[in-house]
Amino acid sequence: MLRCYQEGDLETIKLQPEQELERSSEWEKLKNDKTLVFCDEDKILALIYPLEDEGKITLFALVSRDSGYKAVHLVRTMRSWIIEQFTRNEIYRIDMTTQANFDQANRLAELLGFTYEGTLHSYFRGMDFNIWGIWK
């Protein structure tokens, strides 16, 4: 099921160890009615916040360790959402970053159709992050 953010969602999601390393005050951005919440019954599978800025969307995402095979539905839904952004809105680019050594996040970016564009070395707390983008 896809729905908007509700109070407590951020505190409920079961994070993957790699994402625990990224915990910061920036996550407060996810507490927003624009945040997309993928859930299955009482489990939060993913929180995705699309930050729109002058024709570009940057995706902030947290994917639960509970997502497993249910991530297939997440990928299908997000691919449709991405296409919709390009067709309905004046969006020319969608981008995201992933921890360079976080294989699941990098695979998700590929499955969503993002193209690897480079690596930001020691970008956040000494960790390297990959840059991914999709152009209209």
What would you say this structure looks like, in words?
This protein has 136 residues and is α+β, with helices and mostly antiparallel strands. The protein is 26% helix and 39% strand. The protein is built from four helices and seven strands. The chain has a seven-stranded mixed β-sheet. The mean pLDDT is 91.
Q: Which spans have pLDDT < 50 for at least 5 consecutive residues? A: none
Strand arrangement within the widest β-sheet reads 1-2-3-4-5-7-6
Describe the biggest sheet? 7 strands, mixed
Strand content: 35-45%
Question: So what's the oligomer here?
Answer: single chain
Mean pLDDT: 91
Judged by helices, strands and strand pairing, the structural class is: alpha+beta
Number of strands: 7
Order of helices and strands: EHHEEEHEHEE
Rg value: 14 Å
Shape: globular
Q: Determine the fraction of residues in helical runs and give it as a percent range.
A: 25-40%
Query: Could you give the distance between the termini?
Result: 27 Å
The helix count comes to 4
List the main descriptive attributes of the protein structure presented here:
136 residues, alpha+beta, seven-stranded mixed β-sheet, 39% strand, globular
Brief description of this entry?
The chain is built from four helices and seven strands, in the order E-H-H-E-E-E-H-E-H-E-E. By secondary structure, the chain is of the alpha+beta class.
Secondary-structure blueprint of this entry?
Layout: E1 2-4, H1 9-12, H2 17-20, E2 36-40, E3 43-53, E4 56-63, H3 71-88, E5 93-99, H4 103-111, E6 115-124, E7 127-135
Parallel strand pairs: 4-5
Antiparallel strand pairs: 1-2, 2-3, 3-4, 5-7, 6-7
